[in-house]
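Whether sequence alone determines local backbone shape is best considered at the level of individual chains. The sequence in question and its structure tokens are set out directly beneath this paragraph.

***
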Amino acid sequence: MTIQSEGHTVKRFDGELNDLHYRIIEMGGLALSQLRDALQAIKTKDVALARKIGQRENELDLLEVETDAAIVELIARRCPLGGDLRTIMAVSKGVTDLERIGDEAARVANIALQIYGNDTSNPNERLLHDVHVMGQMAVDALEKALNAFDRSDEEMAREIIADHRAFEDEFEGSLRRLITYIMEDSRNIGFAVNTVLAIKALERVGAHAQNLAEYVIFQVKGKDVRHQGP
């Protein structure tokens, strides 16, 4: 594990910063697991797995609350400055994005329930192709963002930001394809709506992964690169 710190004479402070770091990596691992399971539920039509994701969503919420409380206490007791303060702020912002990734994973799982949790016929696999493609992109981006956060890797973070345009391009292409499927057969409308909601959730995961990358750059360089593009 790599963490930017000031090399304190009070070694307990270093331990407290490390604890924050471990907390966000734990949250990241849980969010990634939720996302993978949600995509697996859609791919394998696993209704039971989709239900479990919704039940586990509270775990991320609890970790967010606990980490926020730890951050407030640390700031109050240590009055951090410089790189230490940037590290704490990066973690504070990061936990919010990870909790929201958990929300998006739960949303994808709920869509799996809507598609497969009743007695209606299953959708044409062409309709779900874009969900699988964007799902893998979302998993890859989140994995990379978590690695960048764990290692304070500025170069990897910049790669994530530069690659994010591919998410937007894929999302727009998916919408065009779905419109074509609806025009071919109006009975696809219901399934197409669910597919749009799923790929939009996955596009949001990509946006949150980009946010995590931006926090890494802020932590390492002290530079706010939000809303600046690649």
Remarks:
- Residues 11-221 form a domain with the Methane Monooxygenase Hydroxylase; Chain G, domain 1 fold (CATH 1.20.58.220).
- DSSP finds seven helices and no strands in the chain.
- Residues 26 and 63 are 9 Å apart (CA to CA).
- Confidence is low (pLDDT under 50) at residues 1-5.
